[in-house]
Amino acid sequence: MLYRENGQFKTSYAADQQIFPIAQDRWAILGILVFAFVGIPLLGDEYLFRAILIPFLILSLAALGVNILVGFCGQITLGAGAFMAVGAYAAYNFHIRIEGLPLLVSILLGGLTSALVGIVFGIPSLRVRGLYLAVATLAAQFFTDWVFLRIPWFTNNASSGSVSVSNLQIMGWEIATPFDKYMFCLVWLTISALLAKNMTRSAIGRQWMAIRDMDVAAEVIGIRPLFAKLSAFAVSSFFVGTAGALWGFIHLSVGAGRFLGRSFVPVAVHGHYRRPRLDHGQLLRRSLHRHAADRVEPVSAGDRRTVRGHDFDGRRVACRVDHLRLTDHFFPDQGAPRYRPPVVHRQGKTPALAISALSRAGEPVSLLLELLSQTHHYYFNKRRH
Amino acid sequence: MGFFIETLIGGLMAGMLYSLVALGFVLIYKASGVFNFAQGAMLLFAALAMARFSAWIPEWLGIDSLWLANVIAFFIAGALMYLVAWLIERLVLRPLVNQEGATLLMATLGIAYVLEGLGTSIFGTAIYKIDVGMPKEPVLILEGIFEGGLLINKEDFVAALIAAVLVALLTLFFQKTVTGRALRAVADDHQAAQSIGIPLNHIWVIVWFVAGVVALVAGVIWGSKLGVQFSLATVALRGLPVVILGGLTSIPGAIIGGLIIGVGEKLSEVYLGPMVGGGIEIWFAYQLALVFLLFRPQGLFGEKIIDRV
Amino acid sequence: MSTANILLKVNSIEVIYNHVILVLKGVSFSVPEGGIVALLGGNGAGKTTTLRAVSNLLRGERGEVTKGTIELRDERIEALSPAQLVKRGVIQVMEGRHCFAHLSIEENLLAGAYTRTEGKAAIAETLEKVYTYFPRLKTRRTSQAAYTSGGEQQMCAIGRALMANPRMVLLDEPSMGLAPQIVDEVFTIVRDLNQKEGVTFLLAEQNTNMALRYADFGYILENGRVVMEGAASELAANEDVKEFYLGLSSAGRKSFRDVKHYRRRKRWLS
């Protein structure tokens, strides 16, 4: 603690029950809010909004959800990325499938869907605890990942598995510029934080904390673990889901929107691991670097002829594998890796383009892999410089 | 029938390899109560060290023998893992003594990032190969019994054998030696172990080093299979369902869990996969583990979570 | 107490937790070789902290000895690690038993011999000795410690400490959560060990009655200070001790309205 709460006595119930009973907290929060609403708009430029602050706000919202589940209810979860994806895709589907559905409602519905899915994946928590649960929640991660990749209905048959929405509007307010988006996310986050804070101070919040501190003892004093745990999962997934919806609608709707397909799922997971002091740009880069190579996987094990992956623009790439036996998951090529010189530079294309070109030509997988690895290298270094 | 058995055997062997990864988790969890998310990073780091040193040593020392170069590289990589273990104990575990499991878990995530960054900046980011003379070519066996015979991958077979030996040694170490007993004691209760004179710091260095060696062996095997590169760290993700299925505290659990997951994955991919569009192995592994957990929340062989209110 | 053969001497130590919380405000006492010394006092008096300061287990709790000295046979021991201290023959049995839950009773005991270097035969001999003192443990030797009763766990914890062949055992609240009969049993064994094996005991207890019956000498702690000391028999006979710690008084039950009582109590707490 940086400061002490000594000497701050409360003389009325209202003072005792206020959200931030300690003066320093009150002023700090107020200061941060003023800075966020007034200071940053005066200082920030477009790049700052787009590349740093908007993802920062959205991931903060996701962190809020994770905080409720892990911090208040003590259920360690690694599945936050999955719920973000669910929220994003659900919001997207509501938005495009129901004509004229307001943006706000779509995002809320996305959050609600995520909450429902959260409850389903939260059921194991009634039986499985601690680290076992943490790993079990990864099941949600891999499962949703697979679902959104394999079932084209969710992505509205978009060939890339990525979706985007344009023309965002709320009650006549056109959210177009990065500044608008920043303000929208900020307002959303502030309201969510207020809701979350109040929830944790209420009866349900105390139930969560009792479960966290010792679930057996909590059960003995009459708290229903079923309700407490699942409600924590639902509330947490709701916030995480809305964060996913915002990510899809607000952050990536233009340009880089194609990332939504899959890449942001690991980003979110990483985000919550490293909540304090994140550099999100770096984070994104890291996860790209890390998750690109295993994007290549056999599409169908039955004949195992085609291998499909994603290049860095989120496009699907596919190529045929003829003489290789696929007995392993990570890399379909069982033989020794081939060390060909990278084709990339010779052709003078960006690696991603080269991959698409090559994969259409039906090059063997090892080459594709080589290229993918070159691609990270290319992106990694290029962005760093 | 032949195809089924082939898949089965493939699954068992893949399972042995998963066990090897899972073993690293179990070791550290057993002895220090830390769920080590850095296991994948350690594996990557060890494999990178092995790959690079086995390439550098012939250059530096002018040794022609690949075998000798590999042995030297293995020991250097081992020494490096000892250094890593020592540093982790000094810089991370010691200040965090008596903290909660979740805190330590988050700390290991930090270790993972540092190790990955360190590994790739020291050793580079290209794909390297480890050539320890693993037999590459598959063989056909039992051609008389099954039509077309069974295709067995020799490399997998050798790897499974190595894994089995390592596991047997570790089990003996934990159950029969004084140090092993002390390791289990520390896992149960840090403070009590300290109070009877077991030096925690020393124990932690030992166990992280042992886990480092396991990571090295796993790294060499996986690395010679797949090539050494960044994504090797994600091999750990395949170990996770194995660990929870087998039980976080059980070495035999890691083995049986590995075998179950390996077989389950392969069979599901081959027989269920085509119905739903394939690519289901990874989540199937997790779901399989989850189903087992519903019946035994501490994994198949894990120690019961004993609570006294 | 005679000055001869002082095994442990604690000189006005001050202990601060977390750099903020002052728990011991200058505690001094000494333990003679072969004696049983009891530290008495209510909750939060600082008994456990004192023991932890001696055994150097404070660091794990973010505590620190900031002033004063602790000497074992004239050697300063504040900077030693718990393991080094065990090698010098001082071992703590922690409050609340702390058995290794997933190890069997026998494994628990054997783990206690970790610091011994004389070889297997000597350890086996000590194990037999522990079993003769605690015959109950022998019958439960293969069961997991977590599934044994509280009394058995306490015995296991003491036995485990004995496996290190200590000269001095710091025993923290051995009576906690145990039935009176079991407490009696545990204390009888402690006295046996003291008399037959010559093990010195430093005992922290809330159960003043029981502790004074078995100890030779006692110190009463309140609020991190020693407020009274004396031979166990003297303490047991002291009117104030009787009233505040043994729950007895000459005039039967006292009323809280009794002002005199309040004043006398106040003297203790200031």
Provide tags for this entry:
heterotrimer, B: 309 residues, mainly alpha, ABC transporter involved in vitamin B12 uptake, BtuC, C: alpha/beta, six-stranded mixed beta sheet, 11 helices, globular, amino-acid transport (chain B), Branched-chain amino acid ABC transporter permease (chain B), BCAA_transport_permease (chain B), membrane (chain B)
Q: What would a concise description of this structure say?
A:
Chain C: Keywords: Amino-acid transport, ATP-binding, Cell membrane, Membrane, Nucleotide-binding, Transport. Chain C: GO terms for molecular function: ATP binding; ATP hydrolysis activity; branched-chain amino acid transmembrane transporter activity. The complex is a heterotrimer of chains A (385), B (309) and C (270). With 385 residues, chain A is mainly α.
Number of domains of chain B: 1
* Largest sheet, spatial ordering of strands of chain B: 1-2
Q: β content of chain C, as a range?
A: 25-35%
From the helix content, strand content and strand pairing of chain B, which structural class follows? mainly alpha
Low-confidence stretches of chain C: none
The total of beta strands of chain C comes to: 10
Name the overall outline of chain C.
globular
> Could you estimate the helical fraction of the residues of chain C in percent?
25-40%
Q: In angstroms, what is the radius of gyration of chain B?
A: 20 Å
CATH class of chain B: Mainly Alpha
Protein model, in words:
The complex is a heterotrimer of chains A (385), B (309) and C (270). With 385 residues, chain A is mainly α. Chain A folds into two domains: 253 residues, Orthogonal Bundle (ABC transporter involved in vitamin B12 uptake, BtuC), CATH 1.10.3470; 105 residues, no CATH class. Chain A contains 15 helices and five strands. In chain A, the strands form two sheets. In chain A, strands 3-4-5 form a three-stranded antiparallel beta sheet. In chain B, strand 1 and strand 2 form a beta hairpin. Chain B has a two-stranded antiparallel ribbon with strand order 1-2. Chain B has a single domain, classed as Orthogonal Bundle (ABC transporter involved in vitamin B12 uptake, BtuC), CATH 1.10.3470. Chain B is globular, with a radius of gyration of 20 Å. The model of chain B has no long low-confidence stretch (mean pLDDT 82). The termini of chain B are far apart. Chain C has eleven helices and ten strands. Chain C is an alpha/beta fold and 270 residues long.
